[in-house]
Amino acid sequence: MMIRHFLGFKRQKVPIFRHFRQLGTVIPPKFLESMSLNHPPDNSSTYTSLKHAISSFFHLVRRRAHRPPPTFKFGRILASLTRMKHHSTVVSLWQQMDLLGIPHDFYTYNIFLNSLCRLNHLGSALSVLARMWKLGLDPSAVTFSILIRGLCREEGKTLQGVNFFHDMVGRGYEDGILTYSIVMDGLCGMENTSLAVELVEKLEKRGWQVHVEVYDTISKGLSAEGKITLALRLFEEMVERGCGMEVLTYNILIGGLCRVGKIAQAMRLIGEMVKKGCEPDMGTSIAILFGVCKSGELHELLRLLDELAARNLMPDVHTFGVVIDSLCKEGKGSEADRLLEAMIGRGLEPNAFAYNSLMDWHCLHSQLDEAQKVFNAMIAKGCAPGVHSYNILIDGYCKRRKVDKACGLLVEMSRKDLIPSTHTYTTLIEGLFQVGRPQDAAELFKKMCSPGQLPGLTTYSVLLDGLLKYGQLHHALKLFNAMQKGKLGPPIELYGVFINSLCDFGMLEVAKGLFSILFVIGIRRNIYVYNIMIGGLLRRGLSKEAYVLFRIMEEDGCVPNGILYNAMIQGFLRTGNTEAAVDLIHEMVGRGFPADSTTVSLLLDLVAKDEMIRILMCVSKQDGNAK
């Protein structure tokens, strides 16, 4: 009964759809049905697009009046949408089936549960499981696997997933490798390999045959935690039990040994794997190179490369590039530099990927001279830098406010017939604004547009923000008006960016005017724009005006989220309107949103002023009235 207890299962009607609507997962049926208009239905089991699948769904719905189609046809549509990763649409269509009285089977239930878990709506998923029991549908091993995967992938819920798994096994569901691999992966991912080992031992006592993939997961977890001795002991136990070893198993251990400096033992293990008929692959080379570089035993590198060459395991240029990139991403740029030198010493010419990774690392650590040296070496070795290579250096120079050098690189690109990307121009425009050269930034924007290159959302955002920063409201509005007259007009996100910039630079009335215009010109204001406008009002202490907008947004079809509730509560608390704050706290908690750290901090500040006593009295009074 563990699972039913875990769900808080009671034999009563499950208010499942109200719960989903609060989560905001329902897509309006009219919107979905509008997507199916003028699109021919299809009887195939695969669907090529979202519109195609929705069209077929509503075609089946319309056929119900004459001849109800079987549930499996709806299941095919939901499965196709799942493969396309349209999980919100799956949830909405499943609900439509339910509301229309179309019966569900195990297949459609499992698809629905999977989509809920992918959307991180585990509470809803568990409610569905309770409903299945209420209807007399005994969930399958696949059903439990979906829920366990969802629990194990959500932060802080892996142990609940383990408990769920134990209960599943106790009920006689033995789905094998699929489910317990998920559990092991979750435990090792949260650095709880000791619990993973205990779980394996329990399964073995029950007579389960633990597959090599599960051992690999645990070995990888132990190696990552530096417990290579335990990983080797586990490996020996696997061999004794006759578990067939794979290349991946050896590679995990070889990499783990190299990371702790046991290079000789790693090389011996390569010899052992060859004797047992398991041929090393390029993954073996990567494991050795990466492990040695991470261990800091770089004095062994050249000798190790000789030994790899003798065993016909010499990494190729691509492999070196992958390892160099991985080292840079882990903050080990010095080791990556040494590896590049060793690579050149072996007569291999690094590719642009390796050079770019090193340049990027040096720029991120403000080592522009070193980045320039890598760039120069790249050219000297005959490896022509591409647009991405130039972008890395331009970005580095702009962040250090060395805009003239960055502009020089733009000129160099032109000489080499390289076409700068949108990112190139955006970075330079932002850099020019940062050093107080708005006129040059505007000129560069014109230069960007002259050959027909279309600026992106980020480019417009940077330009509008920069113009407002330097008080050039007239030019900013002129640019925005030009965008409005374009074929598509600015997206709602850009309206949000412009409104936010106007609020930041004290132009609140202009921001309010632009916000109001959206309704007039027929652009639907979404929660993103409401958040920005309400935030701008609150920053000016206009909590009452913000509250009016807060209520209007729900009428406009935008349900406030936890961020907005907390912002409003903080606005009321800062302006001394504690009663309004209390009302909103009740409403927020009722909708399942927690108070964030800033809200809690402001409430604690009131305790010091004895103001909290009055708040608690208000809360107590309201609770009494509710009863």
How would you describe what is shown here?
71% of the residues lie in helices and 0% in strands. The chain has 627 residues and is mainly alpha-helical. Among the domains are: 1-139, no CATH class; 456-523, no CATH class; 526-627, Alpha Horseshoe (Serine Threonine Protein Phosphatase 5, Tetratricopeptide repeat), CATH 1.25.40.10. The chain is globular, with a radius of gyration of 30 Å.
List keywords for this structure.
single chain, 627 residues, mainly alpha, Serine Threonine Protein Phosphatase 5, Tetratricopeptide repeat, 71% helix, disordered N terminus, PPR_rpt, repeat, Pentacotripeptide-repeat region of PRORP domain-containing protein, TPR-like_helical_dom_sf
What is the topology?
Blueprint: H1 2-7, H2 16-23, H3 29-34, H4 50-63, H5 71-83, H6 87-99, H7 106-118, H8 122-134, H9 141-153, H10 158-170, H11 177-189, H12 193-205, H13 212-224, H14 228-240, H15 247-259, H16 263-275, H17 282-295, H18 301-310, H19 317-329, H20 333-345, H21 352-364, H22 368-380, H23 387-399, H24 403-415, H25 422-434, H26 438-449, H27 457-469, H28 473-484, H29 492-504, H30 508-520, H31 527-539, H32 543-555, H33 562-574, H34 578-590, H35 597-608, H36 611-626
Helix pairs in contact: 4-5, 5-6, 5-7, 6-7, 7-8, 7-9, 8-9, 9-10, 9-11, 10-11, 11-12, 11-13, 13-14, 13-15, 14-15, 15-16, 15-17, 17-19, 19-20, 19-21, 20-21, 21-22, 21-23, 22-23, 23-24, 23-25, 24-25, 25-26, 25-27, 27-28, 27-29, 29-30, 29-31, 30-31, 31-32, 31-33, 32-33, 33-34, 33-35
